[in-house]
Amino acid sequence: MNSIYVCFNLRSLSVSTDAAEEYDKVYQTVYKPLIKFLYSHSNFKFSFSFTGPQLLYYKKKHTEFITILKELVERNQVEILGGGFYAPVLPLLFPVDRNSQIDMLSTEIRQTIGKRPRGINLFADIWDSSIVNNLQTCGIEYALLDSNSIPENKKRFLYYIMTDLGKAVDLFPYYNDFIPTPETDCDFFDKNLTKAVEKTERQDDYFQFSPEKIVILSMNFNSIKPLIDSKWFEKLDLYLKGRDQTRIKTATIDEYRKLQPVKIPVYISATMNKTMNNWCAYLIRNKNRQNYSNTVYDFMEFYEQSSRLNNRITYMTILINQYKNDKMRKKAAREKLLEAQSGTAVLATLNGPYCNTKFRQDSYRCLIMAEKFLHDDSKFTESMSRFDYTSDGINEYVCRMQNYFAYISLLGGSVQELDVMKNCGNYVDNLSRIFEYDGVEDGYKRGVLVDHLFDSDQFNRYLSGEAAGDGVFSRIIYKEVKFIASRKELQLIAEAEYKPTHQRVSLKKIYIFNSNGLTVQYILKNESAKPMKLKFAVESNFSDVNYENEQISYFNIEAAENEKLMLIEPKKSTQQLNLKNQLSEVQAIRLTDSVNGVSFAFEPNEKCGYYYSPILFKRPDFSTNKLITSSATFVSTMFWDIDIESGKETEKMINLTITSVKKKQKN
């Protein structure tokens, strides 16, 4: 009777490098009882995957686990799969970083376990044909993919071979639809698998060449823990020993490869697992993507925070590759860059793409550390450059200053990233409100120095947190007037129509950057034939870079009004104060992140009104389908009443200074 080889695989725990508590929890609840079972049931085969930080932790804290694991590998009962050291999204990396990530983990596995891995687990099974060459270069012979990535007409419960530019790698699909639950009877599990395999065998051209089939079940900790708790694997082992007629046998993937040399040719250009694919179609507006084979590039289009972090990683990779002055600094910077490439930070956790705010900020901190290694070189000079940083076909303006990194987007003419070199994170890692979750649609990208033009009714709605019209300048593409890199000066202009009154208006915006901040000058001109009486508002949005587990670290907000200092309650909006005409003659504003010891001071050239509001973004935890607080943004807006005659203009100026202050411990 031809066998059906069942390969159980436990995927790695992809969390940040300092997740000691999480590593230990998983060890006690999953690894410890599972390895105990395998040690006492020598015929039951299993495969494991680890990230580099996870393996290092167990190597240091649980040597007994490593000792038993090594013995199980030696007796060919257990196979250890490789991957990227920090579980990165390999297709998004430069080839040199792909090789580094794979080689680092393969080396650590060989040194710790005594045998190098032959197979690889990819983060979220994100595949691209370009990585075939990297896998072969690193000595990896096969990769696991979601069975949904395999063309329907080629699904045969066998394995595949893919070639690209003369290089080849084996591909093994896993079939998680067959993963049992604690209530699944072993006999039903056997018959269900056998029935599915026999169905394909009836029209299987490869049956006479490869009668032995393989079914891989690739489980995470959420799916395997109930099986361990219910002792389901013990029941299956007992069932297999007592059934001579069953076709099922447990095996490792490499063991099956040695038995079955015949492979089905296939070509897969780009794909990812079913879960990530479904997340691309989660929003109602994206439902047309539900039955579409999405790629990681589609994913980043839908979840912009992922795209922004990937842009920063790409830019730092270029900087490090071009750095020639000091080999030790370059090595240290590259190590932090590799750590920043974690797929959990760039894309998603098991709970979804909105639940990784902490990991994303950890990644930004690693990138800041990498850039600081280059900054500390005596040859570093502050610079401002113009190129397509976000790969959207439109130039951005990138500022590398001693104390911060920032870039200005022509879309809205605002600062869309602000990394403070005090290892704080990206203070402009903001979400925007969308109707499905917030009941309000912003329709613009929240950044620093976003410009709005409102009438009184629109402004009152803005103060109440409602949708307040188009804001005119917040949704328009600015044009470059002049760019002087040597002076770190950028002049932009936006020309638009204020639609309620059909009046033409232009806004000239002049940025001048320095080591500790920037100065921005506004020249607002009424291009219409009628007088213009409106509200001009400049909005700055700062994200909570310390956000973790729904715990928010509010800024300290101070406003100087008529030579008096006023402390503003950071947990609620100033709407009521604004309606009482308070905060109407503000001379300076300071927002302080006391956890990281960073202060942002805004000084207008003339008194302004001031509005502050915290926004807590509720987003779905996809594992529970419940809305939870996923991140927080603090909105700080300066505004003026403007009354401009036809053909006339008015000028405003704001100075933003970033300074260090005394840190306070996070609550």
Classify the secondary structure makeup into a structural class.
alpha+beta
Average of per-residue pLDDT values: 91
Please give the order of strands in the largest beta sheet. 19-20-21-22-30-27-26-24-25
- CATH-defined topology of the largest domain: 7-stranded beta/alpha barrel
List the total number of helices. 18
Low-pLDDT stretches are: none
Radius of gyration: 29 Å
What descriptive keywords fit this protein?
alpha+beta; Beta-galactosidase, Chain A, domain 5; five-stranded parallel sheet; 30 strands
Explained architecture:
This protein has 667 residues and is of the alpha+beta class. It has three domains: 4-271, 7-stranded beta/alpha barrel (Alpha-Beta Barrel); 304-426, no CATH class; 443-660, Beta-galactosidase, Chain A, domain 5 (Distorted Sandwich), CATH 2.70.98. It contains 18 helices and 30 strands. The strands form six sheets. Strands 19-20-21-22-30-27-26-24-25 form a nine-stranded antiparallel β-sheet, with no helix packed on it. Strands 1, 2, 3, 9 and 10 form a five-stranded parallel β-sheet that branches. The protein has a five-stranded mixed β-sheet with strand order 4-6-8-7-11. A hairpin with an 8-residue loop joins strand 13 and strand 14 (396-400). The longest helix is centred in the N-terminal third of the chain and has 21 residues, at 20-40. The chain is elongated. The termini are far apart. The model has no long low-confidence stretch (mean pLDDT 91).
